[in-house]
């Protein structure tokens, strides 16, 4: 997901400005705009999410052009932000051309996780649920997604914030779910941003199952919504992970610890039952 290929070619040098806009094909949320003026092309990026930060990476293939302003990235865009990435200019008096590809992922690649923090379990105090899939699980917790935990639970189970944060994105309009990759983008969710700019993702909520609003500041323990079975899922459960942006198309999951009655637990084994103590 979050991948877009766009080709631009120019071998003329008009005296007026020419703009071209291309957005990711799936979500139309992250866009690249090129503005050509004479022999120079300015590259702008726009993040159309209201609050969700994203990391963007762009690859160039150019002929007779050089970067005269900006950097090579990766670039972090805050919510609802449009920024100049860089400018390309003609090197010598001859035809020039360029093409580019870009990818983006949720989160800020520069975020540094507070490893001293122990997360609450993401359900109500006193409740206990079985771990259905943990870190490096064979179904979906592999590669960049390896640090994640799934809790088996009935649909409609209240879901609670594991850490203080701000609601930066949410989805609750999907009624689709199943084991295939075709369902990957159909899961309902809530995403919180923490003080260290990492993000916590609470996935597979039921339709209409979000209890908070975009921009809400919530404390650990606040109810966020209700579990479900939407998205890529083999049965009712809650998926929880902590991420930051990445240079690739997938956000990077980060190691984290849960606070339990037996002490802090990292990557609880599949089949373990954990009870929320606070």
Describe the protein:
The protein is an all-beta fold. It has two domains: 3-106, Sandwich (Immunoglobulin-like), CATH 2.60.40; 118-275, Glucose Permease (Domain IIA). 0% of the residues lie in helices and 50% in strands. It contains no helices and 25 strands. The protein has strands at 3-6, 17-23, 30-37, 40-47, 54-63, 65-70, 75-77, 81-90, 97-106, 118-119, 128-133, 148-152, 158-160, 165-171, 177-178, 188-193, 199-210, 217-218, 223-227, 231-232, 237-244, 252-253, 257-260, 263-265, 273-275. Strands 11, 12, 13, 14, 16, 17, 18, 19, 21, 22 and 25 form an eleven-stranded antiparallel β-sheet that branches. The protein is elongated, with a radius of gyration of 21 Å.
List keywords for this structure.
Immunoglobulin-like; Glucose Permease (Domain IIA); 2 domains; five-stranded antiparallel β-sheet; eleven-stranded antiparallel β-sheet; 0% helix; mainly beta; 278 residues; single chain
């Amino acid at each position: 997901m979050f991948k877009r290929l766009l080709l631009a070619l120019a071998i003329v040098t008009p005296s007026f400005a020419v703009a071209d806009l291309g957005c990711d094909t799936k979500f139309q949320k992250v866009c690249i705009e090129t503005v050509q003026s004479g022999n120079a092309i300015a590259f702008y990026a726009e993040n159309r999410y209201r609050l969700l930060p994203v990391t963007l990476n762009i690859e160039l293939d150019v002929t007779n052009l050089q970067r005269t302003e900006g950097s090579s990235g990766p670039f972090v865009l805050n919510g609802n932000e449009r920024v100049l990435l860089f400018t390309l200019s003609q090197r010598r008096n001859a035809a020039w051309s360029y093409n580019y590809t870009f990818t983006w992922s949720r989160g800020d690649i520069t975020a540094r996780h507070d490893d001293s923090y122990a997360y609450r379990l993401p359900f109500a105090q006193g409740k206990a649920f079985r771990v259905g899939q943990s870190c490096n699980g064979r179904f979906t917790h592999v590669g960049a997604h390896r640090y994640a935990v799934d809790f088996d639970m009935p649909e409609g189970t209240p879901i609670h914030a594991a850490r203080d944060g701000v609601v930066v994105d949410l989805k609750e309009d999907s009624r689709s779910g199943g084991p295939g990759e075709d369902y990957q983008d159909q899961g309902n969710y809530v995403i919180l941003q923490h003080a260290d700019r990492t993000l916590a993702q609470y996935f597979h909520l039921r339709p209409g199952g979000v209890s908070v609003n975009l921009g809400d500041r919530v404390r650990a323990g606040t109810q966020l919504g209700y579990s479900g079975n939407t998205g890529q899922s083999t049965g009712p459960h809650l998926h929880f992970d902590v991420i930051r942006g990445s240079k690739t198309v997938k956000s990077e999951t980060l190691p984290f610890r849960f606070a339990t009655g037996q002490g802090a637990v990292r990557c609880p084994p599949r089949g373990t039952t954990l009870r929320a103590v606070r």
